[in-house]
Fold this protein.
Amino acid sequence: EVQLLETGGGLVQPGGSLSLSCAASGFTFSSYAMAWVRQAAGKGLEWVSSLNAGGDETYYADSVKGRFTISRDNSKNTMFLQMNSLRDEDTAIYYCGRHGSGSFTPDYWGQGSLVTVSS
Amino acid sequence: DIVMTQTPLSLSVTLGQPASISCRSSQSLVHSNGNTYLSWLQQRPGQPPRLLIYQISNRLSGVPDRFSGSGAGTDFTLKISRVEAEDVGVYYCTQATQFPWTFGQGTKVEIK
């Protein structure tokens, strides 16, 4: 069974940093591109970042470019999102997802991790 | 960026009746490889999104066949042939043809 588990969310002050992890199981992690998508409370979905299976090709939304870094450790079946210079508008639930083979859009999603940026 | 526009934004449906959601993209979603990466997601209250349909009309394994997708180019439709109580939630169209991926505003489906 494919499972994705996000950890690392919490409360951080504006300008601070936080790192999210996404632990994967139930599939060959090193064969799949992965993504982060976020959702502010009561709002729609916003794609944040993606990286390829090897981890050497990364893509970012303009809203996070230069502040967030996506990476992965295929030996540990884990993806990461390092978030620096956090702003109030980064407050959201962050979901990790596995790129679907036929869809690109994630075919499996984690339960999400809440990040709150507030003083 | 490709803008995805959904209509309607809310839908109240009687159990057992059909429902239809439209999605229009600001430019063609045909990828250079010939595929069209238009998907539909369902998000039940308090749950993460769930992929229902990909490449316009392909149902993910386990998705009931009352869900169907159609369309081409820039105009797409999600249809639920007979709405059931478990279909309550928000439905999003999304494109992954090019980065940044973008989503429609979401259509809230409720039971009348």
User: Anything to note?
Assistant: Chain A has no helices and eleven strands. The radius of gyration of chain A is 13 Å. Residues 61 and 68 of chain A are 10 Å apart (CA to CA). The mean pLDDT of chain A is 97.
